[in-house]
Amino acid sequence: MTDDANRLRVAIVGASGYTGAELVRLLVCHPAARVVALTADRKAGNTLDAVFPHLAGAGGEGALPPLVAVDNVDWEGIDIAFFGLPHGASQPVIAALPPQVKAIDLSPDFRFADPAVYSEWYGLPHQSPALQAEAVYGLTELMRDRVKAARIIACPGCYPTSSLLPLIPLVEAGLIEADEVIIDAKSGVSGAGRAAKEGSLYAEVAEGIHAYGVASHRHAPEIEQGLSLAAGRAIKVNFTPHLMPMNRGILSSIYVRLAKGASADDLRATLATRYQGEPFVKVLAAGTVPATRHVRGSNQCRIGVFADRLPGRAILLSVIDNLVKGASGQAVQNMNVVCGLPETMGLAQAPIFP
Amino acid sequence: MTDDANRLRVAIVGASGYTGAELVRLLVCHPAARVVALTADRKAGNTLDAVFPHLAGAGGEGALPPLVAVDNVDWEGIDIAFFGLPHGASQPVIAALPPQVKAIDLSPDFRFADPAVYSEWYGLPHQSPALQAEAVYGLTELMRDRVKAARIIACPGCYPTSSLLPLIPLVEAGLIEADEVIIDAKSGVSGAGRAAKEGSLYAEVAEGIHAYGVASHRHAPEIEQGLSLAAGRAIKVNFTPHLMPMNRGILSSIYVRLAKGASADDLRATLATRYQGEPFVKVLAAGTVPATRHVRGSNQCRIGVFADRLPGRAILLSVIDNLVKGASGQAVQNMNVVCGLPETMGLAQAPIFP
Amino acid sequence: MTDDANRLRVAIVGASGYTGAELVRLLVCHPAARVVALTADRKAGNTLDAVFPHLAGAGGEGALPPLVAVDNVDWEGIDIAFFGLPHGASQPVIAALPPQVKAIDLSPDFRFADPAVYSEWYGLPHQSPALQAEAVYGLTELMRDRVKAARIIACPGCYPTSSLLPLIPLVEAGLIEADEVIIDAKSGVSGAGRAAKEGSLYAEVAEGIHAYGVASHRHAPEIEQGLSLAAGRAIKVNFTPHLMPMNRGILSSIYVRLAKGASADDLRATLATRYQGEPFVKVLAAGTVPATRHVRGSNQCRIGVFADRLPGRAILLSVIDNLVKGASGQAVQNMNVVCGLPETMGLAQAPIFP
Amino acid sequence: MTDDANRLRVAIVGASGYTGAELVRLLVCHPAARVVALTADRKAGNTLDAVFPHLAGAGGEGALPPLVAVDNVDWEGIDIAFFGLPHGASQPVIAALPPQVKAIDLSPDFRFADPAVYSEWYGLPHQSPALQAEAVYGLTELMRDRVKAARIIACPGCYPTSSLLPLIPLVEAGLIEADEVIIDAKSGVSGAGRAAKEGSLYAEVAEGIHAYGVASHRHAPEIEQGLSLAAGRAIKVNFTPHLMPMNRGILSSIYVRLAKGASADDLRATLATRYQGEPFVKVLAAGTVPATRHVRGSNQCRIGVFADRLPGRAILLSVIDNLVKGASGQAVQNMNVVCGLPETMGLAQAPIFP
Asked: Which residue of A25, A153, A218, C323 has the fewest CB atoms within a 10 Å radius of its CB?
């Protein structure tokens, strides 16, 4: 446990959404960090527990500062700032930060190396293309060295995290055909955020499932960026997300064509080797199926690999908690890396089941 | 409304499972049928509402007979018998029926034209291979003429129903590559039946999702039988079912490679034409996504067709209520057909939402 | 089945909410009614299935009219109008109806005999106090004779329906102390309507329960009105509603003090006698516990009566589907009564489980 | 963080149930404890993650011992043993422990000061009545001094924990009438354990609610024991549990009659004073309603106090996570107390929401 004076001073910008709350949940138990600023423009003036009653008393009575408008943050006192804002909102704030503040952005604002792709999919011009060049895509296990040296870290989207962790090593190893990847993803509802929308109502989600954003979801180009980099050429994917009745969790069922001569066992072995020793990525034994409920509340990604009945094909099953490894947990993991802390610090909680 | 004396006299063999209860729910409102026998060997002697309280008073007080052992059914008084037994149990009972009784079997016992396939996947020798030749696979919309003349109707499994309705017309039309079909299916829990198994407990199912029977589920050969017949050659499929927290419903997300020159619009048009005028199969307009909750409690199948981001590919989305169109509803539909009644009789209820 | 020309011509005002959709679900199967007008001011111009996809094709293709603004309804062609509007909105529309239209209001606008009570609890002056005198409180089983002769029927709230059916006969019989009734009610989410509110989001409702409106819910005065009338003096109640994760259903657990000499068995016998022959109210045998899932989708109310461990007290358990017996089903039941049709017409569906 | 050699050596007897898994989840993060033995007679020989995949790797790879039969535990190496066995099974094992082992029992085996009460409600003779006299009822906040000195700690049931924390201080202060307490409790499904029972199936629990054990649940006498002790005379209560669709959580809605002159504000003030400084019990501000989802995964109990519409009465609302404060968390809290550790050690996690 670090002395309070030596702890990292952390700001959470956009603390009134689910990812903001999840950052708080994780950081109040982090032994080397201290949350010193919380912002939420429309809720400024409130305590956090007025917005998120479950966080009342978190970290000890009085441990958390009140919500303020982002303009009222004293950035001189901040070492690390997390951004949980809607797309388009992070870029100007991060551009105006004093240089000693490291920014960890959970929005898509800095995820795309090519600002034109961002602009095409999010319908906005990029407001800080110069900074974009310096931003690092924070898929920690696969970008650790670049994260270490970064000042701006763009945390991957939840779906891309669950897809790219199994896919990138296989594409890099040439074991699968990168041009024919089919990703059928199933997500819990918290991924849609806390905004009051008819489509997120209990009665519209419970006891049913449906696809959405078919062939048009914004996480497709993000996945394609990752695979294109790995393949060394432009790749497109089938990415079909589904909304289902659970609070947390993503299961990506990924259907791949094997490269000539490769087998499902080869894929599993390659992934097992690649993630050997990684504390948060587990490649399961043959025959073991991952389940979202087995990673709930934790920063884990679990991956299963299966042979297909169709010859020359394999199935990858990948699960994460979208709010942890898919958002706030990976963000804290990146903080640990960029600050030189042990990577698992504050992230060692076991999953919570049932 | 038919005079009571002229109504079809119906037996439900295996009335203590969810499909049995669903048959009762539908048949008590059927104007040309009357349930005169209910069997449940282990529950014999009970009234049905002791097993299924929701059916207390269904059809009017005293409308339903008590549960008896199957050996105690007086078959002379029966016109139609539904079988909701576990696999292996229907064959001997159906083989011993007097000739005037038409049998509608919801189990897999008569689904496979080749008894060896049944035997391989269900681990039992077929006990009535002679009768198998006469059994008709009751995917009503695609087998109507054969159903009309049948004495033994094998109702399709729930997953095959949701998959074959969109796929068979496309394979027959040569619009998709039958050898590369990938079916990612999501099912509610009632498909697993009412047996008390750890894996079906609320705490093991709620708030999560996982694949099961990967590359080994018994509905794969059934789907393959349907596609092989349509293609005129032996076909294998990727069929990957997932268990998710809902009572009723199946969504099959089907990823197909287009035949040369074909487009997603062609697929949609072909299906729309094929199912034009069908009361229970709806092909949705371009851009409309089907949802399981929109068919809950009804005998409908709804199908959406989408272009893929991957060139030369398309996505089919198909939803049913597994207990209705996937089991008891299609069984009643088959009864209507085989008995010369209007096909929608007793099946006109609108879906129940939310 | 009535000839189309002879069917009642029905308007549903406010068809874009859950109760409106439920009216449509029930009425498309009603053999003596035909829906000829559907209104939804903000959605005018749409077809109903654009708002409620589950109703696509309901009643047969083309059976349902498009949504129009309420001002565009041709009232001359209407026999019966159902109102599913927010409070305050029905009063002026009903006041302006031509005299041949019977109004069945699902809102609270005409539920209170004393306009001052309405005004106090709903924060609005009553806009049609003259009409109020002629409105009948449509708790059908207990008000059947008055409903028969009514022109304006105020359908009870969902919570009051589940509470008053067991309580009123017991208060009238003097078997319980009317001044000490404690009603702990648990409701599904559809009771909160389809408005996009943070508190109704899946993630805010699933996997949890909480009380709301403690000692201040608007259904308290409505229950009190019913009990006061039965007791012949002003009665107050404890009414504590809870929001829980289910789409449909209300369970009211009611804790009562017995009148001197009365027993739980007396209560059960009195209710059984009172509701003898009623098609929609079932008093369960001693020891049988009602469950909301056993009445889902049906117009039933089921009531269990238990002795308490505390001497001199008893427990009443009452379940309904809030959208059916608690709203649209009871509304159709009232239509049947006021129009001289068989009371169960169009309402005979068995509950849907699971 | 304690040196490994100095950590408490902990055994979990009955590790294959939900409370066993929850103990592991909490203890792998406990800085002063080390799990050195796990028993599960029927699963002996397996690793824990074969039974609970979510715990794979918990505490670090290889941190957890394999499951063994209870007879194979080497008790000499154990400081603390937790018991998560069915009722009747703990008594003989605890009776045979060497004297240095402290026993923390999560079953009802040692909860009743009077063995005859245990015997009456659990249908078994007490097998260790002599030890019973020495056992301490581990409702930590109210029994801390006795827990400190105990060798056998009987952890309270989940329902009694949620009820007694608000009630005992009020009965002791004479602010409520102890003879008229009505407890309407709502519980998640994990309280029923992991046994495969029809009544715990997803399809039998989801989307519904029902009361069970009405006037006959085994937690009634346990609550009565606590209140009787507080009141100084024999007390009976109305305790009516309900099963609802959630994994974790209990909400007890408690209806009380105020002592003459007392008000709801007095009750709240008394509870606030009583629990001032307690890390795990929060008395909420007037008007704030507790929700089970706000304590999920944490060891908290939150209590709200409301005036009733009925004069002279008040409403207490109390929430816990049944697996944490209602079972394994309170057990760890008791371990901390009895071992002289800081009471919050290993229990500081914030609740997990959504």
From this structure: A218
